[in-house]
Amino acid sequence: IEPMINAGAQEIDMTDPNGWTVRTADRSLTAQWEVQLAITEYGYELLSW
């Protein structure tokens, strides 16, 4: 899960040739936080924090 908190538009632009870079459509400032989790039979387990 990689949520983005944007100072401007929520629309994104993924047209960079590297195929990985994500920008907001209006190029506003953005913060991102990544969390890895596993879905288990009993719920979930956080793998990173």
UniProtKB/TrEMBL annotation:
One of its GO terms (molecular function) is aminopeptidase activity. SUPFAM superfamilies: Creatinase/aminopeptidase. Keywords: Aminopeptidase, Hydrolase, Protease. It comes from the Bacteria. The keyword Hydrolase applies. This is Methionine aminopeptidase. It comes from Adlercreutzia equolifaciens.
